[in-house]
Amino acid sequence: MQRRALAIFVFSGAAGLIFEVALQRSVARAFGVSAFATSTVLAAYMAGLALGAVLFGPLADRLARPARLYAALEAGIGLCALALPFTTRSTIDWFSALARGAEHDAPAVVGGRLALTL
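Predicted structure:
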């Protein structure tokens, strides 16, 4: 059981890194600057870790089988990864409309970039 759990964590981590790189490249296409894309994806990743710990940590502590919650969350992440290629075009369109005529560091542009990445 311990080896199986270790293998699951290793493959999950590898898949997460692959997804993060794919997301970063997709966001770079949407925002046009890879430095913004990288920092936004990293911020979204860290925010997701913190939010997940706050929302799901106490829940996992109360469950008899927390691995099922973990599996469900991983499945949700997988579905998001599968949807990414289909949502990139609309993300580019939304961001273009938001950023048209605005400075790249305007609060609305920065906030919109983060919201679309999340």
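Summary: The chain has a mean pLDDT of 83.
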